């Protein structure tokens, strides 16, 4: 595959020229359309290029599914934009028995979306037994929910009465409330789920700010306002403010951005190579061409992008700690971010824990030291007799430019890197089954606690039965990891997290590339669309004003 990299790069040039041509056309169209009244100002429109697999929260594993199900479902608790756990269907809770028992008191004004199966009133109030049923679904092996793991530390749970739900843990787990904010833990109605079975994925009934209206798979998905929603804004107004959410499924980011530039969708998330230079300057500022019609918001994102080594590899080069360290030292992360991401993202000078979480320490990682990297490669050659060390890095097409950059930089220190590009689904399966020696990966927080990141290096979590894709193993790390469960003091727990992260970097089973940032571009008409470190799409507070009001 490495021999084809130049060809791939060359083939991308015509598409860039076409993109420029289309952008000129769209700008002309925009100039001629300035005076048009926005007639659908109560509909929020976005595109989901990755498609949506299910609207059943028990299967909300990917960000595309999470964004959609978040509009339809609620859980006991929810996370605000500052990563604080707030009440939701549970109006309050108490924690007892040395932080192992959580007792939640439910609101009495939360109703499921209307459905004829509910009978005369077409709806009913959520009660504690609904949560008991919903969590039972996660454990049901016949359903095979990818969210079953969220109950691994739960000893038992039960509805004490209609308004009281209790969960008992096997041991203290400080991150537990954050874990309960995941969409897996949403409440669903038993009578509706049992009626539809597996087809609940396309017939969802929840309690969220929006209700399901229509889904033409691969074409369009529509939600409508839930007029019976229980939450209000800070001024006491009923939420949500929008009348509808419309989602399209254009398959690529370039088409998505063109639709955004034309005004056919209201926001795009993330920075793709196909349009990054069109909308941003090299230092990450919004270009003047878009400043009149577009807002840009950005902030830290709990996502670490990295390269990973399979520690049980038989490849001599990758078995060697000196070469793994040389790779970490051998390329300039800051330069990489400037040229390939227009400055969006934080170069990873620390460990695996991203900036923004307690436990992060920017001093425990690797800096750019090419001469030291060269010396380590030279020592490896001398000690092993391998005069031309060569490795293969497996990636997907979306990250080809990053891998090509690293490939060129490591060649300067005496290490040949072949880049193998495979489909994302193939990479996912291969890394889980130990079939890749060196591969690109990323980890987005399931819940905002560094324990979630460190779980990737706990020896009992070896893939495919857990997220330890590198098969890193350390008795000292395991001891600290288990001790962190019992530490209730946040500051002391953060110190344990830092020690664990430092241990990982000492063995260098990974090459941290950068800590991502959330970047959102919205039309000026959109108000109230915030930003958060988990990149959750929160639409209940969003308003759209008509273009003639701006």
CATH topology of the largest domain: D-Maltodextrin-Binding Protein, domain 2
Number of domains: 2
Number of helical segments? Answer: 17
Outline, from the CA principal axes?
globular
Give me the CATH architecture of the largest domain, please. 3-Layer(aba) Sandwich
Oligomer status? single chain
Any idea what the radius of gyration is? 25 Å
Mean pLDDT: 90
Largest sheet: 5 strands, antiparallel
Q: Could you list the spans in which at least 5 consecutive residues all have pLDDT below 50? A: 1-18, 24-39
Tell me the CATH superfamily of the largest domain: Periplasmic binding protein-like II
- SS elements, strand count: 19
Helix content: 25-40%
Strand percent estimate: 15-25%
Helix and strand composition category: alpha+beta
Short descriptors:
single chain; 550 residues; alpha+beta; D-Maltodextrin-Binding Protein, domain 2; Dipeptide-binding Protein, domain 3; 2 domains; 5-stranded antiparallel β-sheet; 4-stranded mixed β-sheet; 17 helices; 31% helix; globular
List the topology elements.
Layout: H1 5-31, E1 43-47, H2 63-72, E2 77-79, E3 85-87, E4 90-96, E5 101-106, H3 128-139, E6 154-161, E7 164-169, H4 176-180, H5 190-196, E8 210-216, E9 220-225, E10 244-248, H6 253-262, E11 267-269, H7 276-279, H8 288-291, E12 294-309, H9 316-319, H10 321-329, H11 333-341, E13 346-347, H12 370-384, E14 390-395, H13 400-411, E15 416-421, H14 424-432, E16 438-444, H15 450-454, H16 475-486, H17 490-507, E17 510-523, E18 526-527, E19 543-544
Structure commentary:
The structure is a single chain. The protein is built from 17 helices and 19 strands. By secondary structure, it is of the alpha+beta class. It has two domains: 225 residues, Periplasmic binding protein-like II (D-Maltodextrin-Binding Protein, domain 2, 3-Layer(aba) Sandwich); 217 residues, Dipeptide-binding Protein, domain 3 (Roll), CATH 3.10.105. Strands 11, 12, 13, 16 and 17 form a five-stranded antiparallel sheet that branches. A hairpin with a 5-residue loop joins strand 2 and strand 3. It is globular.
């Amino acid at each position: 595959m490495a021999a084809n990299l130049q060809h791939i790069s060359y083939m991308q040039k015509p598409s860039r020229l076409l993109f420029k041509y289309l952008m000129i056309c769209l700008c002309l169209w925009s100039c001629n359309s300035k005076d048009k009244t926005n007639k659908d100002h109560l509909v929020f429109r976005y595109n989901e290029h990755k498609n949506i697999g299910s609207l059943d929260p028990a299967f909300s594993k990917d960000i595309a599914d999470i964004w959609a199900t978040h509009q339809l479902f609620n859980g006991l608790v929810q996370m605000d934009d500052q990563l604080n756990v707030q009440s939701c269907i549970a109006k309050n809770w108490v924690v007892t028995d040395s932080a192992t028992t959580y007792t939640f008191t439910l609101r009495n004004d939360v109703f499921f979306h209307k459905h004829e199966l509910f009978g005369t009133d077409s709806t009913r109030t959520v009660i504690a037994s609904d949560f008991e049923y919903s969590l039972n679904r996660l454990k049901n092996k016949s359903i095979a929910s990818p969210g079953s793991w969220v109950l691994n530390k739960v000893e038992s749970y039960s509805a004490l009465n209609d308004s009281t739900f209790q969960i008992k843990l096997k041991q203290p787990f400080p991150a537990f409330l954050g874990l309960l904010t995941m969409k897996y833990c949403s409440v669903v109605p038993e009578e509706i789920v049992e009626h539809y079975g597996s087809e609940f994925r396309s017939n969802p009934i929840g309690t969220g700010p929006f209700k399901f209206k229509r889904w033409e798979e691969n074409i369009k998905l529509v939600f409508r306002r839930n007029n019976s929603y229980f939450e209000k804004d800070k001024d006491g107004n009923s939420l949500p403010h929008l009348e509808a959410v419309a989602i399209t499924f254009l398959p690529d980011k370039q088409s998505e951005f063109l639709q955004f530039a034309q005004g056919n969708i209201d926001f795009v998330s993330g920075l793709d190579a196909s349009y990054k230079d069109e909308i941003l300057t090299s230092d990450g500022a919004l270009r003047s061409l878009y400043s009149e019609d577009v807002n840009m918001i950005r902030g830290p994102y709990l996502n670490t992008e990295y390269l990973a080594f399979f520690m049980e590899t038989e490849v001599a080069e990758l078995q060697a700690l000196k070469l793994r360290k040389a790779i970490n030292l051998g390329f300039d992360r800051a330069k990489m971010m400037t040229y390939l991401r227009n400055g969006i993202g934080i170069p990873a000078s620390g460990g695996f824990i991203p900036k923004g979480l307690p436990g992060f320490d920017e001093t425990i990682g690797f800096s750019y030291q090419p001469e030291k990297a060269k010396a380590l490669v030279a020592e490896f050659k001398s000690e092993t007799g391998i005069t031309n060390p060569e490795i293969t890095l497996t990636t997907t097409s979306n990250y080809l430019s990053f891998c090509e950059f690293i490939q060129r930089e490591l060649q300067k220190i005496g290490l040949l890197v072949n880049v193998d590009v495979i489909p994302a689904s193939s990479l996912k399966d291969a890394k889980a089954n130990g079939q890749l020696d060196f591969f690109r990966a990323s980890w987005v927080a399931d819940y905002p606690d560094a324990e979630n990141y460190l779980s990737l290096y706990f020896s009992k979590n070896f893939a495919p039965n857990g997220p330890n894709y590198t098969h890193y193993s350390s008795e000292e790390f395991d001891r600290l990891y288990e001790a962190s469960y019992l530490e209730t003091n946040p500051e002391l727990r953060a110190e344990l997290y830092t020690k664990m992260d430092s241990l990982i970097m000492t063995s260098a089973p990974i090459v941290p590339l950068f800590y991502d940032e959330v970047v959102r571009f919205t039309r000026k008409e959109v108000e109230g669309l915030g930003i958060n470190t988990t990149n959750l799409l929160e639409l209940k507070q969003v308003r759209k004003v008509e273009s003639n009001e701006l």
